[in-house]
Amino acid sequence: MAQVTQRLPTQPSGEDSPAGASIASDRVRRRTVQVGGLEVPILESGSGPLVLCLHGFPDHAASWVGLLDRLARQGYWAVAPAQRGYWPGGAAPDGSYRASATGQDALDLIEALGREQADLIGHDLGARAAYAAASLDATRVRKLVGMAVPYGPQLRTAWLTNGDQQRRSWYMFFFQTAMAEPAVELDDFAFIDRLWREWSPGYELPDAERSALKETLRGAGVLAETLGYYRQLFSPPADAATQTLEARASGAITVPTLYLHGADDNCMSVELSDGMDAVFKNGFERIVVPDAGHFLHLEQPKTVADHILGFLNN
């Protein structure tokens, strides 16, 4: 494994500080880890049982910094990797941004870090990866936390039949077009600012964190790769082997699971998580977090961390 390459900028921290803030960074370190064919950048803090925090779009691993610190202070080894495609040179080696590929990445990272098992926390597309990992190999996942994107057939049904969710998911359909990449980049990624405003009404990402996120998306080749997640979302894989993997990655989950959703999420309707318990076979709890939108771990960091730690520690 590569050695620590850089520490995060030092700023004040505390349990009530935004989870994406740069905090007392002698506790949060950066390095890269060889995972499959990629040198994966990770942020990490603490020691003890392993917890992986998986980010979504439009986001990056740095939004987990506050939670990493909180987990570390509670005795966990908290690690937030960049998802495939989210750094220059990080394009998917097999070209896949499907759930089975990102779920396997999480399982491979557990092994690369020298552990047999980990807890998984996923937000947005990171939640999709966490669900897939638990479906692919439940023996490698002790507990599972999903946030902001539900699991089960109701989501795909909503894209076909639910006018409200179709409106919320307009960006997914726009990303299928050739206009998407230049439109997202225009005017210093004003498109990204718009998504954050719409998805988390009333919350404003601090300027430093906003700039850091845009630097991630500005990396060579990164935006085109991140759009690949959505460009593969609605089309079935052409080869039979990937079709089989995708079916395995979307099966019933036998890992104890906590699901958190912001009450004011304007990206994914909270109602889409109704009935999720039907596909979780070993314990499931859903909590709707008040006064939070899509980026609930940033909007209500202490509340979200309290729920997560209560679940992991039990």
Short description:
With 314 residues, this protein is α/β, with parallel strands linked by helices. It has helices at 65-73, 99-112, 125-136, 154-161, 163-168, 170-174, 180-199, 207-218, 222-231, 240-248, 296-299, 301-313, and strands at residues 6-7, 29-35, 38-45, 50-54, 77-81, 118-123, 141-147, 257-262, 284-289.
> What percentage of residues falls in helices of 4 or more residues?
25-40%
Strand-and-helix sequence, N→C? EEEEHEHEHEHHHHHHHEEHH
Cα-atom Rg, whole angstroms? 18 Å
Shape: globular
Compile the SSE list and pairings:
Blueprint: E1 6-7, E2 29-35, E3 38-45, E4 50-54, H1 65-73, E5 77-81, H2 99-112, E6 118-123, H3 125-136, E7 141-147, H4 154-161, H5 163-168, H6 170-174, H7 180-199, H8 207-218, H9 222-231, H10 240-248, E8 257-262, E9 284-289, H11 296-299, H12 301-313
Parallel strand pairs: 4-5, 4-6, 6-7, 7-8, 8-9
Antiparallel strand pairs: 1-2, 2-3, 3-5
Helix pairs in contact: 2-3
Mind explaining what this structure looks like?
The structure is a single chain. The protein has one domain (about 5-314): Alpha/Beta hydrolase fold, catalytic domain (Rossmann fold, 3-Layer(aba) Sandwich). β4, α1 and β5 form a beta-alpha-beta unit. Strands 1-2-3-5-4-6-7-8-9 form a 9-stranded mixed sheet, sandwiched between helices. α2 (about 100-110) packs across α3 (about 125-135). It is about 40% helix and about 15% strand. The relative contact order is 0.15. It is of the alpha/beta class and about 325 residues long.
